[in-house]
Amino acid sequence: MSTDPAPTTPLPEEPAAAPTDATGEAPEPPATSPDADGAPRPAARPLTAALLNLSGLGLGYLHLRAWLRLVVALAATAGLVWVALPIGREPIAVWWALGYLGALGLFALDAALLARHRARHETPRRNVWTPRAAGRIAWVTLAVVPLLGGAYVVTQQEVLEQHLAHDLDQAEESLEGRPSVFAAYKDVYDAAYATYVRTVAEHPRTRAADRVPGLVDGLYAQAKGDDACNAVAAVRHFAEPGTAEPLRTAAQHELPGALHDCGLRSAERGVFASARPMLTELLADHPASDPAQALPEELAAWRDDVIKSLSSKGGCSDTRQATESTSFLAGFDSGKVKALADEARTKIPAGLLRCGVAQFKNEQYTEAQGVLSTLIDVYPRAKDADYAERVQIASGIARLDPRAGVELPPLTEPDGTVTLTVHNYSPDQFEMVYTGPATGVITIDPCEDCHHYAKGDQPECVGYSLTVPSETVTIPAGDYITATRQDGTILDWEGGSLGKESYTADGGLCTWTHER
After folding, report:
1. Which parts of this chain are annotated as the region Disordered (predicted)?
2. Model confidence at 298, in pLDDT bands (50, 70, 90)?
3. Disulfide-capable partner of 108 in 50, 181, 239, 247 (CB 3.0 to 4.6 Å)?
4. What is the DSSP letter of 243?
């Protein structure tokens, strides 16, 4: 029996695990053709080549030494750069970006296929980097496109902000120094407002859009200005249906108040031609608004102030405004406003009389004549009209002879005791005014059979005549100052003197005119 040990069969060795690199891809089988130094040439991994091309720099083709393909990849990137630069206020079209990303995808796929094809069908070539280095470069450069894209977006947004800020500044500067007359610069305001609206509509999330509300408020305030009637023109313009928000709603809300302020201010200034259309529009188009509801009471207060000012301590106000206020109020369709005119007709004549009397006492005879003439002409049926005419006559005579202004004509004259007959030997109508114990006017028709006398000649005053017009009045006895009146103006007698007569008994006098 043999004692030699039995032969044993050795166990097979387990294969070693395939190494991996940074890409996570198992390397291709090593090349069988040695390099010059006898080391095998490692083939480029497809995934690494694809990732390198996603950098946008054609690094996958560079790694594979595919020079023609590299030129094409760089040309694509250069084309995008040419489109994107210089960076303007608007970004490039999204189709450029999508097309470029699609091209990168194709370049990555092409590089992967090229690497796989070379590994399987060709003798491995020398690559630019080792597989491990290429993998590291691929992962690092993969961030190039996102980073550059983000930088472009941020930079382009800042460029846009600068452009928008410049537009807003120019619009704001176009309004500087404009007078507060909106109608003359309406186009300038429209252009500036259009810039503001366009900025918010097209770029709502920009810093420039945040500035717009304040700029719109400034534009609107400047367009309205400090004058109430200028504000109406601006508010009415921005309230038109074609105006963009936000001014249209704001202007439509403010229009009743603007009409109210302009109309009432114009009435206070006596510019009734401007006041009436404003207030008429307010009452007709906005009857339920607060300004329209408050208008009758405000007009009543204004009317009362006008009447009070006719006899203020500082003198009389604009009497034209006082007299025209009646017809102004009567011209409205509103019953409440028309009623104010009826009350004014009873109050204004008394105010005008007080004004005229105060001016007479202050020896302002010319002014008193004007005020009292207004009362007589505009309110001939007023109860104060007769007395106003007597004070007016006394004022006209006192303007020529201050002695006639010593005392006001009495409200109630004493009964007449003396009869005075005046004969007119002139072919012109004759008016004689007098003041004293009584004040009045004697008006005599023209004498058809009479003529103008030569200088130094005079008619023979024979008293009663069928052909010579005459007028007889009964007046209280006393001293009188007389004058003539032509076309409403009181004048001296011919020769430049006033008549100063004492009438204590019945009598008469004759008048005539000389040739001029």
Report:
1. 1-42
2. very high
3. 50
4. S
Of residues 462 and 329, the one with the higher pLDDT is 329
Summarised one tens digit per residue, pLDDT across range 470-508 is 999 999 999 999 999 988 888 888 766 677 888 888 888
Closest CA to 265 of 235, 183, 257, 344: 257
Q: What is the pTM of this model?
A: 0.57
The predicted pLDDT at position 496 comes to: 62
Nearest to 234 by CA among 280, 189, 176: 189
What gap in Å lies between CA 352 and CA 307, rounded to an integer? 8
pLDDT digits (tens, 9 = 90+) for 431-442: 999 999 999 999
For 31, 271, 319, 376, 377, the CA distances from 371, given in Å and listed in that order, are 125, 19, 7, 9, 10
Q: Tokens 């009873």 — which residue?
A: 346
Peptide bond into 34 cis (omega under 30): no
End-to-end CA distance of the chain: 192
Q: Burial letters for 440-450: b for 16+ Cβ neighbours within 10 Å, e otherwise?
A: bbbebeebeeb
Q: Is the pLDDT of residue 18 over 50?
A: no
Torsion of CA 84, 86, 88, 94, to 10 degrees: 0
Please give the Cα distance from 237 to 228 (Å, whole number): 14
Structure tokens that stand for 45 in this block? 């991994």
Closest Cα partner for 55 from 116, 92, 108?
108
User: What is the pLDDT averaged over residues 325-337?
Assistant: 86
How far apart, in whole angstroms, are the C-alpha atoms of residue 302 and residue 149? 71
Q: Where are the alpha helices (DSSP H) in 316-474?
A: 319-330, 335-361, 365-378, 385-400
Residue 252 token pair: 């439509």
Q: Which two tokens stand for residue 182?
A: 């909106």
